[in-house]
Design a protein that fits this description.
Layout: H1 5-22, E1 35-41, E2 48-54, E3 64-68, E4 75-78, E5 82-87, E6 92-100, E7 103-114, E8 118-121, E9 131-134, E10 141-143, H2 148-155, H3 160-163, H4 172-186, E11 193-194, E12 205-218, E13 228-229, E14 233-243, E15 248-268, E16 275-296, E17 305-327, E18 338-361, E19 364-379, E20 386-399
Antiparallel strand pairs: 1-2, 1-5, 2-3, 3-4, 5-6, 6-7, 7-8, 7-11, 8-9, 9-10, 12-13, 12-14, 12-20, 14-15, 15-16, 16-17, 17-18, 18-19, 19-20
Domain Outer membrane protein beta-barrel: 196-370
InterPro entries: Beta-barrel_OMP_2
Pfam family, one: OMP_b-brl_2
Length: 400
């Protein structure tokens, strides 16, 4: 059994499982539904209409809220027409002016805590900060990971028991507790609502990858079918993930790496006691196009997210050379030494599998993954046999 053959079997099984899961209804997410709720109109006076609302699209870049009553057909309200909306599950959205660059822009934010001091989250992931703190008489203050502690210390200065702790954790559940505690501390008689934690949504991401790759060659007449390992070489890639929902995505792109190897081995000539020594020298480069289904654990707002992906890939060899030297250490061997130079080229196909970890890097994501790829059937020019490749890659990817 050749090196990587067992991982190859695992990859084949994973491809089938991933494709099966990807075709289930769960992979495509849930659609919206009408629930009892309300909308607050932006017109003067700000009327509150009660009936049934569908908030499925309320958290998008171009938010929309569907509203209907028993007497009125469904109507769509946009950002300019609303001040707030909510349903019977406790899910609420509020329109706010938030700082973005040199100006303030309107945005529909999800309410996490409603009270004299309120906490909002950005459901789109497109605003400067994931969370915003709103206090009476002030515009919502952005809470970015790199400076949220300073903002909270200043904002909670009138609650010494909270501002003096200096042990803030940057997570939605923790921020909700801080704001709720602050309201009880400073406004003990005020009414407060603690809403469900905002659920972020994955979005299309483009990535740039750099890493190290190692190629293994399989020659059809290699003794025992063992691999001919190459040296570590740098690899680069342009990648993309296209989300189906928060846990399933289509992965594709292009990767490029060179390869080089120099391997020797000896074996007995069949039917004799003479040794024959083979020396293989290869060099070239390969371009790959993977197409895979990625399964990512945990929610998008989590600090770290493991992922696994499996699929297929096409490969094309560029300027690939193979030099073969066959020699006989014993001068009495009744065979001549042989040296050949061949070209391996053309298109190959095979399987692709990768496992790794996604980490936040500001609004971007940093991916660290180990990838295995098998390619079958590269033609050798002028010969009747094919050459198989296996490749292991350790990559670091910056997803914007």
């Amino acid at each position: 059994m050749s090196l990587l053959s067992a991982p190859g079997n695992v990859i084949r099984a994973a491809v089938g499982a991933a494709l099966f899961l990807g075709l289930t209804p769960l992979a495509w997410g849930q659609k919206g539904a009408f629930r009892a709720g309300y909308v607050v109109l932006a017109a003067t006076p700000a009327d509150t209409l009660r009936g049934e609302v569908d908030l499925y699209r309320a958290g998008r870049v171009q938010p929309q809220v569907l509203f209907r009553t028993a007497q009125q057909a469904p109507r769509t309200y946009g950002l300019d027409e609303l001040l707030a909306a909510g349903d019977a599950t406790g899910l609420q959205y509020r329109r706010c002016q938030v700082p973005k660059g040199e100006a303030n822009v309107p945005a529909m934010l999800q309410v996490l805590v409603a009270g004299p001091a309120s906490l909002y989250s950005d459901p789109t992931g497109q605003l400067p900060a994931p969370f915003y703190l709103d206090k009476p008489g002030r515009q919502p203050m952005p809470l970015k990971r790199e400076q949220f502690m300073q903002v909270l210390e200043t904002a909670f200065a009138d609650c010494p028991s909270l501002s003096g702790s200096r042990r803030y954790v940057y997570a939605a559940s923790e921020l909700r507790q801080y704001v709720a505690y602050y309201n009880r501390c400073v406004y003990p008689q005020a009414t407060m609502q603690n809403q469900p934690v905002s659920r972020s949504k994955d979005r299309v991401r483009l990535g740039v990858q750099a890493g190290l790759a190692r190629v293994f060659f399989y020659r059809p007449y290699r003794a025992g079918g063992k691999a001919l390992p190459g040296t570590l070489t740098p690899t680069f890639g342009l990648l993309a993930t296209l989300p189906l929902n928060n846990h399933f995505a289509v992965f594709t792109g292009f990767t490029y790496n060179g390869y080089r190897s120099d391997n020797s081995f000896s074996e007995l000539i069949p039917g004799s006691s003479y040794l024959r020594t083979y020396r293989y020298q290869t060099k070239g480069s390969v371009v790959r196009w993977p197409l895979a289904l990625r399964i990512t654990a945990r929610r998008p707002e989590a600090l770290w997210r493991p992922y696994f992906q499996a699929g297929i890939q096409m490969s094309y060899l560029l300027a690939s050379e193979l030099k073969t030297q066959i020699s006989h250490p014993d001068p009495n061997t009744p065979q001549d030494d042989v040296s050949t130079a061949e070209s391996i080229d053309g298109l190959g196909r095979g399987l692709h599998g990768e496992a790794g970890l996604l980490l936040p890097c500001g609004k971007a994501r940093l991916g660290i993954g180990l990838r295995g790829e098998s390619t079958n059937g590269f033609p050798v020019r002028g010969r009747l046999f094919l050459t198989d490749f296996r490749q292991l890659t350790l990559g670091l990817t910056y997803y914007h």
